Amino acid sequence: MSENHNHYDILIIGAGPIGMACAIEAQRANLSYIIIEKGALVNSLFNYPVFMTFFSTSQRLEIGGVPFVTISPKPNRNEAVEYYRRVAEKFNLHINLFERVQQVTKNGDSFHVNTAKADYTAKNVIVATGFYDVPLLMNVKGEELPKVTHYYKDPHLYAFQNVLVVGANNSGVDAALETYRKGAKVTMVVRSAELGKNVKYWVRPDIENRIKEGEITAYFNAEVLEIRTDEVDIKTQEGIKTIPNDFVIAMTGYQPDFNMLRKFGIELPDSLCPVYNENTMETNVKGLYLAGVVCGGMDTHKLFIENSRVHAELIVKSIVNPVEI
């Protein structure tokens, strides 16, 4: 482990769009800062499917006042990854990548932050870790098999294979359609009685027609019972069905790292929505702030890049001009 020791006004955990926005605001306020990121720059976006298209327009994904110029109104994953990299270059943001934060401890008026590579102290800490790192598990036998994934990337891997897609929100629908078009025999398992209500409006007719035509088989009000090397058991309204299977793409959703938040001393009530002041984004721990999707707890559809960019401004304003209560 490195012996270096650094002190900052703000230490930001997470180099996603909102963590970067916090760094830009800190820079503008002449505050010293560092971003610590356990993976690549905008790691969650990097792990999105390679052909994913955002629901939002490029303007609503902008940070730092830097224009996000795209040919189509709705940018794709590759355009977004490149945009945020260029933003990091433009502002020369101080980012340590591939460095995992292990502990944050309050010592008097400052924090001690221990990572896998170094130790830091900071007057303030911002947690902007998103929610994409902890998948919601099905908790079924065989879920640990190598053929099961909770992160869908590229449809080519599944060409001419028997693929089971679990879930029918945007990620599940995209995986089903893209793998189907690569020649996969696709079966969808959906817990509810219908497709997700928030499925992209330009995609919904496509998946509905593929199901209607029998090109994709969909079981509604169904669930996975067991996964084996070459087949899967599904509980359906008609009874238990066993189907041949090569891969399971479990698009069952994600959640913030609640254990990490508790470890940092942040209060989590039964709702699992972290305790914080909506005007300052400060948690129950003085000087420890939340920014971005992590604020929503289990309601991961509540906050997005476009409606949580303001968190950066609120936090830095609170740090620069603290209001004593």
UniProtKB/TrEMBL annotation:
Keywords: Flavoprotein, Oxidoreductase. It comes from the Bacteria. GO terms for molecular function: oxidoreductase activity. This is Thioredoxin reductase (NADPH). It comes from Pedobacter rhizosphaerae. It holds the Pfam family Pyr_redox_3. The keyword Metal-binding does not apply.
